[in-house]
Amino acid sequence: MYTVEEEKHNKIADTIRHILSADCFPLFTAAVLLVLYYAGQDIAAICFYALEAILMLVFLDDLTPIIPHSLFMSVLISYKNSPNTLIHDNNGGYYFEPVNFGIIIAVITIAALAVLYRAVVTRKRLKFNAMCLGLAAFSAALLLNGVGTKDYTPMNLFYGFSLSFLFAVPYAVFSGNVTQTKENFIKVGHGVMAFSLLLLTELAIKYATDWDYIVVGGAIEKSALLFGWGIWNTMGMMLVVCIPFAFLLASNFKYGFIYVIYATVLSAAAFLTGSRQSMLGTVVVYPISAIICIVCSKDKWSRFRNGVTFGAMIAFVIIFTASVWKDLMYVFSGIFENLFDESGYSGNGRISLIKQALSFFVGAPVTGQGFYLSFGADPGFVGLDGVIPLMAHNTFAELLATCGILGLICYLFHRVITVICFIHKATPDRAFVAMSILGLLLLCMFDNHIFYLFPTFFYSCLMCFATSADVPAKPKLKKIA
Predict the structure, then answer these.
(1) pLDDT tens readout for residues 68-92
(2) How far is CA 121 from CA 115, 117, 176, 177, 455, in A?
């Protein structure tokens, strides 16, 4: 028997749960963050984002809405206050102002306490499954980066701990607090689509406002595509991650062909970032996701509509490309010109980075020489030089150099476990999430995304829906609010 006050409390809690778990709620998040981005109100954006995350952790029985919410963490930094030295010379002064820095620390602390609260309250759901075993092994190798080398510093432990925490903990917490139902896959898809709309809006506004700097002499100058939170490669990577989710929705709705068209728009946007790696990722992820969509759509008429739409999109791309081939080659001419030098293919310095990584590996083959190595050809993570280390722009080369053969073996073990857990009870919906992760990993053969913390976090979150995990069929907290 509830008292009047308890009844009011329950109604308020139920209302909060309903709002946070609504399929349209990520659109609200995207709209607010867009306004705050262009207003240059980064602290407000961080507080707003953290408030949503904390409310989800405290009130929701099923944490599925926090999976797409994790993507928004990557786009909180505005152009006005960016620490990116390619944009400003203040090198992040805004974030290190005493008041702002204090607020950020307070917000992070409260969010961490909310995660701890959630882990304690739902500790019986947290099961050590095969995925946890693979992530634990890989995390241990990251922690041991550079151990025993003469240049080892506490920063190696700091960065190794940060990565291992973000690889393992989000998966451990969220996998025990989400259910892989059809409705939840669709909920994640809607959330990612809201995030992709934010990306498209910022890319479109960038082209509209900086056209003369981006399109120079009729050719794309990708170095002008700078956002407060990243560069052209970052934008391209996140667009590639979003593409399979459009096909996930296309396969689940009667008029899903609209999402096939939208996936094509996302693919075109990835090309317009001028990011070569994103172009490659799109060429791989888009057609495979489309084939899965056509084969696995909900009924024969949906398969027919999606198939016809995909065919029409491909035909349009072929005809358009053929009709303006010379113009397209000129538009993208500057993007590919630095892939070769007098010795042949150089990958814009990536080949020299890989060679350098192998030389580091030879010097410390067991646990590597640690993350803070001097990769001369790496331009670094602009704005956070000294915090984010220089890297090899290739997952395997990076692991060999920094974590040695131990790191590579543990990573491969994690990869094998991932494939096994995906194949176990594989479903079409899970395949789309796996394609998103595959796109990210493919891009990491040419960049460092998965070692840049924010992508590490949403990689771990997406894993909850890409692999089979032992979770209760109907999770329910006895009392969480």
Answers:
(1) 999 999 999 999 988 877 777 655 5
(2) 10, 6, 12, 11, 27
Element (H, E) at 295: helix 276-296
User: What's the rounded Cα separation, in Å, for the pair 17 and 19?
Assistant: 6
Q: Which tokens belong to 411?
A: 């990573």
**Of 445, 342, 346, whose CA–CA distance to 394 is shortest?**
445
CA dist list (Å): 284 to 383, 443, 444? 31, 11, 14
pTM: 0.89
Q: pLDDT for 78-132, tens place per residue?
A: 999 888 777 776 555 788 888 998 999 999 899 888 888 887 887 767 767 888 8
**Would you state the structure tokens that stand for residue 445, as one six-digit string?**
């053969």
Alpha helix (H) ranges present in 21-92? 25-39, 42-59, 66-69
Residues 6+ apart with CB under 8 A from 372: 146, 151, 153, 155, 156, 159, 389, 390
Measured CA angle at 448 (ends 447, 450), to 5 deg: 125
Give, to the nearest 10 degrees, the angle between helix 395-423 and helix 350-363.
90
Residues in the chain: 481
| Cα R_g (the chain), whole angstroms | 23
Four-CA torsion 1, 121, 30, 79, nearest 10 degrees: 140
Short-list 372, 417, 391, CA closest to 139: 417
- Side-chain half-sphere CA neighbours of 354 within 13 A: 13
DSSP per-residue codes, 334-373: HHHTTSEETTEE-TTTHHHHHHHHHHHHHHSTTT-S-S--
- Spatial CA neighbour of 283 closest among 303, 262, 294, 268: 268
In the block, which residue shows the tokens 């008292």? Answer: 3
Q: 409: buried, middle or exposed (CB in 10 Å: 19+, 13-18, 0-12)?
A: middle
